[in-house]
Design goal:
heterodimer, A: 115 residues, mainly beta, 6-stranded mixed β-sheet, 0% helix, B: 7-stranded mixed β-sheet, globular
Chain lengths: 115, 115
């Protein structure tokens, strides 16, 4: 069974600073995908970034980057130059290759960006 | 290029009534996933459907819940005889399931409140 652990219920960061949100995962699959989603207070789920287990380079999307350490089974999200609009819940998720490829989510981290 | 559409956005039902939640996937996507988010929790997988087929319903409660994705029209998640514990946000996601393109894109969710 797959499991995602997000150990930080809440994080605070000053505007314009970088912040790292932690995510560790557990799986026996060799091939899998890791995702980060943002959920603002309005409630929608916004896809941020994806990392495949066989990708050799860390994924980047604008101000978002994924620090993928396969041996440690961690997939931390790094947000550079935080903005007030980054305040939201952030969810890490994993998907196994094959089968239904359903996503397994962590419990989330609430990020607050202070001016 | 419209995203995943869900309606209604908010639904209030009394105990014992039926709730019908609709999801129209993104254009070109033929795979639909339903997830449920309880307060202060991450999303939990419920069911995965392709057109006219249920592929994986391992996350669906055994009673009162059903889902369909007909050849024409939206996917429907149906909850019969709702109870207060069904109060949650229900998210639909769609994916094209093409090789190398397997991100799930989420709709805005339906917030179900059972009185």
């Amino acid at each position: 069974a797959q499991k995602i652990t997000q150990t930080q219920p809440g994080m605070f960061v000053q505007e314009k600073e970088a912040v790292t949100l932690d995510c560790t995962y557990d799986t026996s699959d060799q091939s899998y995908g890791l995702f980060w989603y943002k959920q603002p207070s309005s409630g929608e789920m916004i896809f941020l970034i994806y990392q495949g287990s066989y990708d050799e380079q860390n994924a980047t999307e604008g101000r978002y980057s994924l620090n993928f350490q396969k041996a440690r089974k961690s997939a931390n999200l790094v947000i550079s130059a935080s903005q007030l609009g980054d305040s939201a819940m952030y969810f890490c998720a994993m998907r196994a290759q094959g089968g239904s490829e359903k996503l397994v989510f962590g419990k989330g981290t609430k990020l607050t960006v202070n001016p | 290029n419209a995203g995943v559409m869900q309606n209604p956005r908010h639904l209030v039902r009394r105990r014992g009534q039926e709730a019908r939640l609709r999801c129209s996937p993104m254009k070109g996507h033929s795979h639909v996933y339903w997830y449920r988010q309880l307060p202060e929790e991450g999303l939990k997988f419920m069911v995965y459907l392709q057109k006219e087929n249920i592929i994986d319903e391992s996350g669906m409660p055994k009673e009162r819940f059903s889902a369909e994705f007909p050849k024409e029209g939206p996917s429907i998640l149906r909850i019969q005889q709702v109870v207060r514990g069904d109060s949650a946000a229900y998210f639909c996601a769609s994916s094209p399931r093409l090789r190398g393109t397997d991100t799930q894109y989420f709709g805005p969710g339906t917030r179900l409140t059972v009185l």
